[in-house]
Amino acid sequence: MAARKSERLLNLLITLLVARSYVTKARIRSVVEQYRDAGDDAFEKMFERDKDELRSLGIPIEVGHLDRAFDDEPGYRVERAAFELPEIDLEPDEAAVLGLAARVWQHAGLASATSDALVKLKAAGVSVDRTALNVAQPQLAVEEPAFEAFWSATQTRTPVAFSYRTSGSAQATLRHLQPWGVVSYRGRWYAVGHDIDRNAPRLFRLSRVRGEVTDDGQATSFEVPEGTDIRALARNLAPPAGDQRARLLAKPGAALGLRRHARQSPVEPVETQAAPSDEPAGWDRLEVTYGRQDSLVDEVLSYGADVIVEAPEELRSRVVARLRVVAEASEAPR
Amino acid sequence: MSGARDQVARLLALVPYIQSREEVSVEQAAADFGVRPEQIVKDLNVLWFCGLPGLGMGDLIDVDMDALDGDGVIRVSNADYLSRPLRLGSTEASALIVALRALREASDDAVRPIVDRTLGKLEAAAGDGAALAARVDIQVGSAAPEVARLRATLENAVRTGRQVRLGYYVPARDQATERIVDPLRLVQAEGNTYLEAWCRTAEGNRLFRLDRVSAAEVLDAAVTDHSDEPPRDLSSGLFQASPDDTLVTLRLQPQARWVAEYYPVESVEEVEDGGLRVTLRAGDRGWLTRLMLRIGSAAEIEDPVELSEIVRRAAQDALGNYV
User: Fold this and answer.
1) Which of A167, A173, A189, A261 could crosslink A206 through cysteines, CB 3.0-4.6 Å?
2) What stretch of H or E contains B313?
């Protein structure tokens, strides 16, 4: 019966927690009723399982000897400092923030881990009231089936093997990784680590992992190199920060997508370079900040005749060259 | 057997929880622990038989059963040794810290310092348990705070059953639209948050990506009941085919393979130079033209061939702006 077992587990824990030093197995057996009533074999089995179960809850059961001089029977204890949550004193607004955090994960396992953490904090006297703060909380969705495997491999530092298909190739290939961390970038999850096949740090998009992720070695069998900055590695995912500026003309009411990240120029630009002499009347002059020229070229091209690049010249001539290729394509069907 | 394990985990929090508050109603405890009140009472009954080794008269944990039965109030005494909860496990600490970081990314200047203070205290309390969190990074993107605000507004509209006036950007047509919708639910798919709604303007079920919503005004008017409409099945993707779509066959060079991944395709075929032949549905010719201009020489329309003439003219028009 669950209640009887709960009672036994709790009494075992209390015995180990209140003891001043290691408690021998014999002593444990004499003070915990259900152990006392069991036969020798049944007790041994029960005791081993109970210890495992308490440890699985995160309870640090230590094994040691009462007396160093004599090679006596080992004993057990739970050290209070390692067992207890340290003091944590939260202001009401901080407690409210915790309440919001509880609803961020949209992943069953991590949402329940967050709730468990909050229950412990409540048990430490924190009163969580999320209504005290008027903030819309973001959500961390996890759509990738491989996420859990990478999260736990990162946690246990276990090398993994998995089948992976990059966007440029047709075939999935078997890849081997020492996972250093997991990263969420704009709603998509990535694993970052040491790619054993390429012998270099690499990022893997988890939605491209096919099938099962299998262990490819023992837990804790690799170290994350000292000074590894997951955030810096992840930053490589993001397009480079825009440090260049382009000046564009857009037809009124068109190129709305572009306008969403452009700035309407408040005044006439001072540069004179490449300004078309017959500037279309009524068009809007936009200023766009960009990092990669190719991306902006792609975007400008998609608006066809509705957007004109004024400057810089390099961007302008790139757009013209690309348009020319399409405009002059052979008419003959192949 | 996991019943006992979960129960012990709960009791190790419940005992300090009650002791730090002196007394708590069963209802409140159940709400804080996310279980039913009956479960809390069952848990307390286990405590009745627990205590210091030997379990002599003064050794047992004392649960005030009169207060419990009479007033539904929990009082626990004689359990000083369980005055603090168990420390946070590694997954617990990491999950909470990462959630806070996501919150930090999406919060404004007023809230960010509060999140930072909370994170600092939590990381200190978690100790080694927070180590994994250092290996998880969250970058939510610049639109996230706005998306979070919109979601709160729209969730509220779903809950209260009110119509919403949406300003919505349609990238396929490069159009800003305005429409009135009956919001149905918010869904997360392919890295984005969507509102599934009955569009009163188009008279059909539609998905609206929140980062393309420019305005959402909750109206006084109540929604129409759509409970007879089955919820949209997102398992096979977000794209919904229409009988009016044009089937287009494209020949993609290797550098344009991303098209097959980015857009829903009907069929994909490898070709010898490392490229692909794909068939996709184009609901809008303007959309296809824009896609083709963007890809340029890395793709070619094989069928219907007259579409490539439209693309070529569009390129010639655009070129006319420069020469």
Assistant:
1) A189
2) helix B306-320
Bridge partners of B316? Answer: none
Q: What is the CATH number of the domain that holds B215?
A: 2.30.30.520
Asked if B51's CB is within 8 angstroms of A14's CB, the reply is yes
Query: Does any CB of chain A come closer than 8 Å to the CB of residue B91?
Result: yes
Q: DSSP letters of B196-215? A: EEEETTTTEEEEEEGGGEEE
Interchain CB contact of B77 with A (< 8 Å): no
CB contact under 8 A, A123 and B14: yes
As a whole number of angstroms, the distance between CA B29 and CA B127 comes to 27
Could you tell me if B61 and B19 lie in one domain? yes
Q: Give per-10-residue mean pLDDT for chain A (334 aa).
A: 89 95 92 92 96 95 79 87 93 90 88 93 87 71 90 93 80 92 88 93 90 93 88 72 86 87 61 53 87 90 93 92 86 50
User: Would you call B297 and A329 a contact, using CB atoms and an 8 Å cutoff?
Assistant: yes
Separation between Cα atoms, residue B79 and residue A291, nearest integer Å? 62
The full set of domains in chain A, from first to last, is: 2-83 (1.10.10.10), 92-141 (no CATH), 147-235 (2.30.30), 244-327 (no CATH)
pLDDT digits (tens, 9 = 90+) for B147-165: 888 988 999 999 999 999 9
Domain contains B236: no
Instruction: Note whether B288 contacts A: Cβ–Cβ < 8 A.
Output: no
Do B168 and B206 have their domain in common? yes
Interface contact B4-A2, CB threshold 8 A: yes
User: What would the mean pLDDT of B75-83 be, rounded to a whole number?
Assistant: 93
List of chain A residues whose C-beta atoms are within 8 Å of the C-beta of residue B106: 136-138
Instruction: Give the model confidence (pLDDT) of A137-181 as tens digits.
Output: 778 888 889 999 999 999 889 999 999 987 666 678 999 999 999
CB contact under 8 A, A329 and B121: no
Cα–Cα distance between A303 and A299 in angstroms, integer? 7
> With an 8 Å Cβ cutoff, are A125 and B21 in contact?
yes
Domain count, chain B: 4
A214 min Cα distance to partner chain B (Å): 20
Find the CB nearest B319 among A122, A230, A320.
A320
Q: What residues form DSSP beta bridges with A161? A: A176, A214
Say if residue B14 is in the same domain as residue B77: yes
pTM confidence score: 0.79
